[in-house]
């Protein structure tokens, strides 16, 4: 594997040097000729450019700062003031604001002379935020998160009346029924996603907690959490700091060339002997307050109970799959030059699950004990392209610690280093046909690129999954943009912006 990775890395280095011979200025659009098909912002020698898939560029050197996000409307700064340009380089609103935030739903929040305003594309003021309210949010479902010094709430745009109104606020009135104080109701407000939002507050015990509300401002359930995510595919990730029971595996036959799973060579430690620690524990909850977990029915009463699946890490569902992990401790015995050792390795064991909680793919952990070292992988992201799920994972080396007996190993697990930063890289593989009832679907390694690649995300401008890749040419790192596509039922990664830039924003 390492030999293969070295060959790939060398190839990419040569590719970078070759592509760098193409001068950016030779592809540059003339001033005034806007770049209608720009897909990213690229930096070269501290100069920002709009760039398209043909590597044609439009210079943005006249601006002091480009806010690092890419959308239809970009935020720029010049002479200390902010304005807006279109993604082709054309000026939308000249720099004139003290603060400016992204456009969404054709509206944006700006701040000038200490007051926040909502404006449209023409710069017309649609609404002035009173009471020194402000916002760093953007509109979602016609709702804007607003904040004061110590609280947050929602401002709604109603297209039927072409006006704005506050939602869920706590009103105080005088004896005449006139509103004298308009309190924002929460300590934290998240953006509404799929008609629900995360809100944070101090409960009656003075503890800071999170929950979910609907578009009417009603709590979805009575639970309160130390962590909560947005809903996706019907579930949100929630978490509390709680007692977490580690999954512990011990060697059975002093054989160490084995994958870490309940196999012929390793067995799980009994629950009674499993160590516990106080850790953030994560679960999945539906909009009705039901957990994703194991369902049981009392044979006498018919009462249905759900024991939630608990994880050490959990991502939100995307395309009906999520990445989870269990916290594991491996204890094994081995000999080296006639000396007997007991080693422990402490890590997260990853898997992908579906919305029923089924483990679709176990972690490709290929554990090998060679003088206390091994290679494990961390799952990072899943994308769905043409009926195939693409899984990105990160592989790294780790090192064990050694103890005289199992008891001291287990008792000292918290002192075990999780990993050493050596030979790190990303691998992109794919899973297919896992909906046909297979417990263990096919997994194929297709391509390897260096570690510091970012995750794939869908680009609306080319209707494809793209990711930044950063490679070393021997002198400095260079960035480009890669595209993920399916050819003959296999994933193919190609460059759509060559790796000749210092940085890419997409």
Please estimate the helix content. under 10%
Output the number of helix runs. 2
Q: Strand percentage, roughly?
A: over 45%
Tell me, briefly, the overall form: globular
Note poorly predicted spans: 1-23, 253-265, 364-372, 413-428, 432-453
Radius of gyration: 27 Å
Largest sheet: 7 strands, mixed
Number of strands: 40
Regarding quaternary structure, what we see is: single chain
Our measurement of the CA-to-CA distance between the termini, rounded to an integer number of angstroms, reads: 31 Å
Structural class: mainly beta
Mean pLDDT: 75
Strand and helix layout:
Layout (H helix, E strand, L loop, with lengths): L1 H19 L19 E5 L2 E5 L5 E3 L5 E2 L6 E6 L2 E6 L4 E7 L1 E2 L7 E5 L2 E5 L5 E4 L14 E5 L4 E7 L4 E5 L2 E4 L5 E5 L4 E2 L6 E7 L5 E7 L12 E2 L6 E11 L1 E5 L14 E3 L7 E11 L6 E5 L6 E5 L4 E2 L6 E16 L2 E16 L4 E4 L10 E13 L2 E12 L1 E3 L2 H6 L13 E8 L9 E9 L6 E3 L4 E9 L4 E11 L2 E12 L1 E3 L1
Parallel strand pairs: 22-28
Antiparallel strand pairs: 1-2, 1-40, 2-3, 4-5, 5-6, 6-7, 8-9, 9-10, 10-11, 12-13, 13-14, 15-16, 17-18, 18-19, 20-21, 21-24, 22-23, 25-26, 27-28, 28-29, 29-30, 29-33, 31-32, 32-34, 34-35, 36-37, 37-38, 38-39
How would you portray this structure in words?
There is one protein chain. The protein has 506 residues and is mainly β. It has a domain of 232 residues. Helix content is 5%, strand content 50%. It starts with a helix and ends with a strand. The N terminus is likely disordered.
């Amino acid at each position: 594997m390492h030999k293969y990775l070295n060959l790939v890395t060398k190839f990419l280095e040569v590719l970078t040097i070759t592509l760098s011979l193409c001068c950016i200025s030779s592809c540059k659009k003339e001033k005034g000729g806007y770049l209608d098909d720009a897909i990213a912002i690229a930096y070269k020698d501290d100069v920002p450019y709009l760039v398209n898939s043909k590597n044609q560029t439009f210079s943005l050197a006249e601006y002091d700062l480009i806010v690092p996000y890419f959308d239809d409307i970009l935020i720029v700064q010049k002479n200390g003031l902010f304005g807006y340009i279109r993604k082709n380089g054309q000026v939308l609103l000249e720099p004139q604001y003290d603060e400016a935030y992204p456009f969404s739903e054709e509206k944006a929040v700006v701040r000038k002379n200490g007051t926040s305003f909502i404006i449209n594309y023409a710069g017309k003021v649609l609404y002035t935020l009173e009471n020194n309210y402000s916002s760093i949010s953007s509109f979602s479902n016609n709702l804007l998160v607003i904040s004061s010094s110590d609280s947050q709430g929602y401002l709604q745009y109603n297209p039927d009346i072409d006006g704005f109104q506050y939602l869920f606020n706590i009103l105080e009135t005088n004896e005449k029924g006139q509103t004298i104080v308009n309190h924002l109701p929460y300590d934290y407000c998240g953006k509404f996603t799929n008609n629900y939002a995360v809100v944070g507050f101090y409960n009656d015990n003075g503890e800071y907690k999170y929950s979910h509300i609907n578009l009417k401002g009603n709590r979805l359930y009575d639970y309160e959490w130390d962590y909560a995510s947005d809903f996706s595919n019907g579930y949100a990730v929630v978490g509390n700091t709680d007692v977490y029971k580690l999954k512990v595996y011990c060697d059975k036959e002093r054989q160490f060339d084995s994958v870490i799973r309940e196999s012929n060579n390793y067995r799980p430690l009994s629950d009674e002997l499993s160590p516990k620690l106080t850790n953030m524990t994560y679960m999945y909850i539906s909009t009705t307050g039901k957990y994703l977990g194991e369902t049981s029915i009392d044979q006498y009463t018919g009462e249905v109970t759900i024991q939630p699946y608990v994880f050490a890490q959990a991502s939100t569902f995307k395309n009906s799959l999520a990445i989870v992990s269990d916290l594991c401790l491996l204890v094994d015995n081995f000999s080296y030059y006639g000396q007997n050792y007991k080693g422990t390795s402490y890590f997260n064991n990853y898997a992908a699950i579906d919305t029923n909680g089924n483990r679709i793919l176990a972690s490709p952990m290929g554990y090998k004990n060679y003088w206390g070292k091994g290679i494990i992988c961390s799952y990072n992201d899943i994308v769905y392209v043409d009926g195939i799920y693409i899984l990105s994972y990160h592989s790294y080396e780790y090192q064990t610690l050694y103890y005289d007996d199992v008891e001291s190993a287990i008792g000292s697990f918290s002192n075990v280093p999780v990993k050493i930063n050596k030979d790190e890289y990303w691998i992109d593989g794919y899973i297919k046909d896992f909906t046909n009832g297979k417990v263990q679907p096919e997994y194929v390694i297709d391509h390897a690129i260096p570690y510091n690649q970012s995750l794939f995300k869908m680009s609306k401008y080319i209707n494809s999954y793209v990711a930044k890749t950063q490679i070393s040419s021997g002198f400095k790192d260079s960035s480009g943009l890669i595209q993920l596509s399916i050819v003959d039922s296999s994933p193919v990664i190609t460059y759509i912006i060559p790796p000749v830039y210092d940085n890419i924003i997409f």
